[in-house]
Structures are given as C-alpha cells and as structure tokens.
Amino acid sequence: MNNKGLQFLFILVCLFASNGIAQGTYQAKVIDSETKEVIVGAKVLVKGTQTGSISDTLGQVSLSQVPEGEQVLVFSAVGYQDKEIEMTFPLEENVLMIVKLEPDAELDVVIVEATRSNRSIADLPTRTEVLTEEIDEAASMEPGKISHLITHSTGIQVQTTAATSNGAVVRIQGLNGRYTQILKDGFPLYGGFSGSLDVLQIPPLDLRQVEYIKGSASTLYGGGAIGGLVNLLSKKPISDEVLLHLNASHIGSRDLNFFAGKRFGKWGFTNLASFHLHEPYDADDNGYTDIPSVFKMNFNPRLFFYPDDRTELYAGLMVTIENRMGGDLSLINKNAPTLSNFYYDKQESKRFTTQFKATRETKKGNILSFKNSVSTFDRYIEIREDQLGNMIRFAGTQRNSFTEFNYNIKEAKHNLIFGLNIYTDEFREREMDTSMLRNQQFFTYGLFANHLWDIHEKFSVETGLRTDFALASSALSLRGIQPFVLPRISALWKVVKPFSIRLGGGMGYRLPTVFTEEAEPLGFKNVNPVDFENVDAERSYNGNIDFKYTSNFGTKNVLLTFDQLFFYNVIDNPILLNIDSTGGYTYANSPGMLHARGFESQIKLTLWWFTWFVGYTYTDAYIEEAGLTRVIPLTPVHSIKGDLLFVIEGKWRIGWDYEYKSRQKLTDGSYTRDLFTTGIIVERTLQNFVIFLNAENFTDVRQSRYGSTLSGPNNTPQYTDVWAPLDGFFFNAGLKIKL
Fold first, then answer.
1. CA 543 to CA 567: how far, in whole Å?
2. Does 10 map to a domain?
3. 344-361 and 575-579: which strand pairing?
4. Residue 177 lies in a domain
5. What tens digit of pLDDT does each residue of 350-376 get?
6. Three-class secondary structure assignment of 168-202
7. Has residue 435 got a pLDDT over 60?
8. Strands 228-234, 180-184: parallel, antiparallel or unpaired by DSSP?
9. Contact between residue 142 and residue 730 where contact means Cβ atoms under 8 Å apart
10. d(Cα 467, Cα 560) in Å, to the nearest integer?
C-alpha cells in the first residue's frame, strides 16, 4: 500500500474512533431555570452506576464512556431540585445540551461551612443547625452582643458567670462553657482569658449565618470542642449594602452600629463599626449594679480580592476595646469608699486580631485553601472585695495564632478534605499581687482528613480523623508532646422524601487551663497555675441520633419541620477546681466521669406569614465518682423555648418569644425555683427605614425578686450563683436605616 493509501486509512480510522468516542460522550451546560445563570458544582450521575461528573466554572459538564442503551441521567445541585433525563446511548450526535434546574422550594437549603465540605443541611451527614433569618431579629433585641442570638437553639444556654461584671459563657447540652468552641469564619479566635467576655463583645450586625454542631467536634478544629462548636459567619460583599443601626433602652443602653459592604470589579470590602454604652443599672435598688457600666467599641474592616472566577482572597482586622465596672453605685459614681460602700469590680480589655484567607479552585473543581489569624487579647481585673480595702488584681496578655492549609477534592460521589493546622496560645501574667505567675503556653499541630461518601442517593457517610500533637507548659511544669487521635463518623439515611435519620459519634479532648468559669468569680485570686505533669487533658466520647421530618405539602406557603435528637456525652477524668488546706485553689482530675445525656425535640411550622417554633430539652448532667453522683450546678433538667413570628416582607415583623427553665441546683446544694420569661418585638419597615420596639422579660422575672444577690464572705455579689435574669424587665427602641 502506497503512502496515500496509508494516509487515507489513518484518517478513516480516526473518523470512526472519534465518532465512537462522541457517541459515548455526553456534554451539557447546567443553568438556573429562573435567572439563566450557570450553576457551578452541579453533579450529574448515570443512575445505577458509578459514572458521574461535576460542572466547571462555565457550568459545563461532560460524561464519557456511558454504557449503551437507555440510561437515566440525574442532575443535582445545592439549592435546586433534582432532575432526571432519560436518553439512549450511543447518541446520534454530540451537541452541547442545556439543562435547567428548578430552585428548591424547601427552606432548609442553607450551605454549611463549619465542616469545610460546603454542603446544604439536607445533604450533610453531620447534624448541624443554622440560624439566618433570626440574626436580624436578635440584632434588634441586643445590638451589642450575641447572647440572645446564641440561645435561639434548643440545648444551648448562655450562663452568666459573675454577677457584677456580667461575664458569660455558652453551655451546650448541660456541659460547662469551657467545652464550647466559638469560631469566627472558621477561625478559633476566642476562649482562654477572654472566655467569659466573648459573647458580650461580638455584635451581630455583620453576621449572615450562625452554625451549631453539638457534641464532640474536636476532629474538625482541634481541642476545645468537647461540647460542640458555634461558627459565626460574616457577611461578604456580594451586593452593595450600607446599614446604620441606632438603639436605646430605658435601663441605660445606647448603641450606634454601622455596616457597609460593596463590590467593585475584582475588589470588595466590608466594614463594621460598633459603639455600645451602658449606664450602671440597679434593678432592685439595693445599691449594687445588676448591669455594670460599659463602654465598648468594635471595628472590623475586611478587604476582598477576586483576581478571577476561581480565586478569592481577603484580609481583615478586628479591634475590640471595652471597659466595664460594676459593684457599689456609690463608688461607680466616684464617691470615696466607706465601711458600708466598699465593693467594685473593674475590668478593661483590648483585642487586636488579623485575618487572612486565600482559596483557589482548580479546573477540576477542587479547592486549595490557606488561612491565618493572629490575635492579642489584653485584660485587667481589679476587685475591691472588703471593707479593709483588700484588692484582687489580675492582668495579663493572651496571644494566639491559627494557621491552616487544606485541600478539598470534589468528585461525583466523594468529597475528601485533608490538611494541616497549627495553633499557638500563650498567656503572660503581669506581676501584681501574686508570688507565682499563672503563665501558660500551648503549641499544637494537627493533621486531619474528612471524607464524605454518597454511597447511594438516599445514603451517605461522613468520616473524619484528626491527630493532634500538643505541648503545654506553665510556671509549675512542662508536659511533653501528647498525641490525641480523634475519629468521628456520621451517617445520613434519607428514608423517604420528607423523613431522614442521622447517626453520629466522635471523640474530643481539652487541655487543662487556668481559665474556667469556676475561677472567673474569684478574680483568679489564690488560683494556682496548672501543673501539667499531674493534670491530664480531658477526653470525651459522644454519640447522637437524630430523626427529622420536613415537608411543604406541595405548596410554597406551608413548611413543617420536626426534629428529634437524642444525645449522650461522657468526659473521662474531668478537671475540677478544688480548695486546699491553705485556702488556695488547685486544678485536679476527678477519678470519676462526667455524664451529660438527654434529648431535644423541635417543631417549626410556617403558615403563610406566620412561623411558630417550640423546642424542649431534657438534660441529665452529673459527675459519677466512687459510686456517688453529683448533679452539675446551674443545669435545668427541663427547658422549653420558642417563638411566634409574623412577617410581611418589606412591611411588618412581629415576634413573641418565651422560655421556661425548671429548677436548678446551686453550688451550695440548694435548689432554685423554676422560671418563665417572655418578650415581644415589633418592627415596621417604611422604604429604607425600619423602626423597632422590643419589650424583653415584661413579666419582670429577675433573681433579686426571689432572694438577695449578696452573699458571703463580704456580703457582696461576687460569689453569687446567677440562675435567673439580673436586669428584669426592659424595653428598647431604635431605628435601622438602609442608605
């Protein structure tokens, strides 16, 4: 055969080969049926096979080697209804087809970021709760802090730790506040010396979403999340927004908050500026503050850069400055101390934090991320505790940093995330009135992997494994590197369209620290440094099962959600603060175990303009030691919380909330009475103006109505357990202006 014949044969073979490839290949462009915008990350699967692909940044998806015969292609994307298309392969011609997906009418299509997989709640095996619409309402109730916002979920309690400074911690499922990890945009910025001030210093105005994961979550972000984690997500410059928020209350609160966000080309920015003033308030006229005098300022600018469609970078700065003073009103008003007017609690704090994050998406849809945060928190405590003028002074600086690399591999049925993060935490006490400084230092680096596998369209499994290596030291001792191996597993079974079951469990740990809610009311007086050689880290084991039913009954005007969760948390060798023969306080491991078990029941019903929510929590929390059990103080066994909301978009928002707590055991062994509080908020929108009025606790439930808040040894509020609201009834009003 001559050269021309060979060339002809070669061309003929290539044509037949390309025709065969084309017939086994399917190409499509996935778009939104309403906006006609392309959908990135949409999945297409050949039903009953492992063949599948994901749409790229142009919305295009390609399938090769599709089996011959009639096949069903299943298209799915977060926030859209699944779509099935029947086709016969091989195709007669290979053309780019347009596939339109309908937006999902279900209201729970919210992307969760805490697990890094960026999936909707409905498709995530890890049980997660998300707040979005409640943020705006909570900002009207408490513009200066997130305390009220956090308590919108069942099983979560904001516990006041000090009656005069009003310090508070977040407790999940009956566990102490030190077991809850608070994140901001996935950064573990809070805790330690700032732990009792965190929820008081974060304003909600720039938040777009709040995520809760209950139970041991140390596998996700390292130690500290034995009870669970709360992830606060900030707004991004997706659209132009300028918001001015003014607020005042009849008990002396004043707020001026400003938020702005704008996108211009490849750049964008957001900025939050917040100012909060609160005059000292004495609800029961006993001469002591129930709410301290507070001055607080927050400043949080962030700059975003989008060099192309697959890259995002941002850098931010967080600044918080706060001064608060509680105690005897005479001293707060600058009068000289006397034998009957001698007590005050003064606190000053400053926080400076930098944030940087960069993400890059590959052509295959995989994502590489890097983030870094550096924070400095400085705090000064001064308490004049008795008639002799004895002072408690404690001050120091906490510096921490967080750095993480992670790589997210996305495939049709698999999502694999693995990475490395490094966490440092150093506290240096300033020399005041102590012979031994409570300095402490932690250095932890961890390797983690998380795999999410869609085994079937109705069944998926998420597994994770983290190995942390931690080094801890104090003025007393140095603990060598300790390894912590932390597995976790979650499974999701979509039994039928409205009904799903989630099952999960994991392990956690927490390193000992001098900063706990038990030491906070003491002003850390006589609290000894942690002896890391003789105090082991706390380790936890958690399991939960969740049953969820959601249905809109085929209409956009009705949505019913019922959620039933059962949980069991166990902490081995929990750390207790014990008093010794010299009157000092020492941290030591209990030989027993801490148990926190119970269940949560939630119902949420939306009927046209009305949304009704009610949640019940049963909590049994106790320490078991040498065959004896001790109830965890300040933990109500029964609690009910809920609200009824009426909303006409762009006009009215009227909400009624209520909460019931059964009696609680105090640290002295006595029991409190049960409590019921309720409040109402009304908002009226007039074009770019929103006028709001909030009446909180209008039944005037407060602790001083049921007994004195003064206690020994000096007849001051310093050592008083706080089990009820201190401020009682108050109302506030304000104005939101969209500029």
1. 6
2. no
3. unpaired
4. no
5. 999 999 999 999 988 899 999 999 999
6. EEEEECCCCHHHEEEEECCECCCCHHHCCCHHHHC
7. yes
8. parallel
9. no
10. 41
Burial of 338 (0-12, 13-18, 19+ CB in 10 A): exposed
DSSP run (H or E) holding 140: helix 134-141
Cα separation, 230 vs 181, whole angstroms: 6
**Which residues make Cβ contacts (< 8 Å) with residue 213, sequence separation at least 6?**
114, 115, 126, 127, 128, 220, 225, 228, 229, 231
Q: How many domains does the chain have?
A: 2
Q: Which residue in this structure is represented by tokens 């762009």?
A: 650
- Rounded to two decimals, what is the model's pTM? 0.87
Last residue of a domain, one of 49, 76, 101: 101
Q: Which domain holds residue 44?
A: 21-101
Q: Classify 218 as helix, strand or coil.
A: helix
Any idea what the CATH number is for the domain that residue 92 is in? Answer: 2.60.40.4130
Same-domain status, 91 and 239: no
Q: Which two tokens stand for residue 457?
A: 């369209």
Res. 219: pLDDT tops 90: no
Distance CA 369, CA 314 (A): 12
**Tens digit of each residue's pLDDT (9 = 90 or more) over 171-203:** 999 999 999 999 999 999 899 999 999 999 999
For the beta carbon of residue 51, count every other beta carbon within 10 angstroms: 18
Do the Cβ atoms of 410 and 365 come closer than 8 Å?
yes
Give the count of beta carbons closer than 10 Å to the beta carbon of residue 676.
11
Q: Are residues 337 and 485 in the same domain?
A: yes
DSSP string, 65-123: SPPSEEEEEEEE-TTB--EEEEEEES-SS--EEEEEEPBP--TT--EE-TTSS-EEGGG
Write out the E strands in 430-537.
440-456, 459-474, 478-496, 499-510
Q: How far apart are CA 148 and CA 563, in angstroms?
A: 22
Residue of 128, 223, 172, 215 whose CA lies nearest to 486:
223
My answer on whether 502 and 645 are in the same domain is yes
Q: Which of 101, 122, 139 is the last residue of a domain?
A: 101
314-to-189, 205, 354 alpha-carbon distances in Å: 17, 20, 11
Vertex 675, ends 673 and 680: CA angle to 5°?
165
Whether 313 is covered by a domain: the verdict is yes
Query: In CATH, what number is assigned to the domain containing residue 392?
Result: 2.40.170.20
- Quick check: is 585 in a domain? yes
Angle (CA) 232 509 161, round 5°: 60
